[in-house]
Design brief:
By secondary structure, this protein is α+β, with helices and mostly antiparallel strands. The chain is 30% helix and 29% strand. Helix 2 packs antiparallel against helix 3. The chain is elongated.
């Protein structure tokens, strides 16, 4: 039944209340937040400004893979080599056919010139006692005109065929060149899906390169939150414990019917994000708060 009395350590100090002290969790919840409260986050993914998925247009067999996964490459560096023997044989045949057609076109062109000269001679006339007399009959003159037109048409057709062969040669030269897959820009090899002797089918990606300067982020924003998206608006997210920001510069005008979301993209402040190693963040998913903290 005794009552315990605690003396105040300082003069004028108030005695502690008999109510229990707040728990650490309660204290933390009552502490003022260092930033404004964030609205629920949306999902974002990092993108490089340039991405190339390199795939052949026809079925090819890989013979060499100089590139290494994760290696930095310069524009024009050879990444992968396909077997080009069949294409080189076709190119040689096409070049021979082009030369033969050029010769044919030249011969027919000469025939057309000769026919035109014959027509000119048969159309010649002389003056006798004030009268104009044709050197040949009208039938022969008409036939020479037909002959000249026919020779000219054959020469034009041969020239057109020669041009067709020339285009075929250019196509095959490009096909042979395409057997050496090169980097389209400075970047990093982030995907290597073929080895020597691998048969790669049309449209099947064999090498993936990402590069360019800077870093972008793409957001999927629910349609009910469209009002929170504004051009030049700022968004906030965290990467490896660092708070980063991006400025939106591209917002889809219409909602995606399947996901019921708006797609928005923006440029990340890469000076704080990753410096010269932005490529390492490509494809990484983060949770983004719409608006600054």
């Amino acid at each position: 039944g005794a009552t315990l009395v605690l003396a105040a350590p300082f003069v004028g100090a108030k005695l502690a209340s008999t109510a229990p002290s707040p728990s650490p969790a309660t204290s933390a919840s009552m502490a003022p937040a260092p930033h404004e409260a964030l609205s629920p986050t949306v999902v974002g993914v990092f993108l490089m400004p340039s991405t190339a998925n390199l795939a052949p247009k026809s079925e090819l067999t890989v013979v060499e893979v100089p590139a290494k996964l994760g290696a930095r490459v310069k524009k024009g560096d050879v990444l992968l080599v396909y077997d080009a023997r069949e294409r080189r044989h076709a190119l040689a045949a096409a070049k021979a056919a082009h030369k033969a057609q050029l010769a044919t076109a030249g011969a027919l062109g000469a025939e057309a010139s000769a026919a035109a000269h014959r027509q000119t001679r048969r159309n010649a006339t002389v003056e006798v006692d004030g009268r104009t007399i044709a050197l040949v009959s009208g039938e022969e003159a008409t036939q020479s005109a037909f002959d000249a037109r026919g020779a000219g048409a054959r020469a034009a057709a041969a020239s057109a065929m020669a041009e067709e062969h020339k285009v075929r040669v250019a196509q095959l030269e490009q096909a042979v060149e395409d057997c050496r897959v090169v980097a389209p820009f400075d970047g990093v090899v982030t995907g290597l899906y073929a080895d020597p002797s691998t048969v790669v089918h049309p449209g099947e990606v064999a090498v993936r390169v990402v590069g360019g300067t800077g870093l972008r982020i793409r957001l999927a924003v629910p349609e009910e939150r469209r009002a929170e998206l504004t051009a030049k608006g700022r968004v906030t997210f965290s990467v490896d414990g660092k708070e980063l920001h991006a400025t939106l510069d591209d917002i889809a005008p219409e909602v995606d019917a399947a996901s019921r979301t708006y797609v928005a993209e923006g440029t990340v402040d890469t000076r704080a994000a990753c410096g010269d190693t932005c490529v390492a963040l490509a494809g990484r998913v983060v949770h983004v708060a719409l608006g600054p903290r």
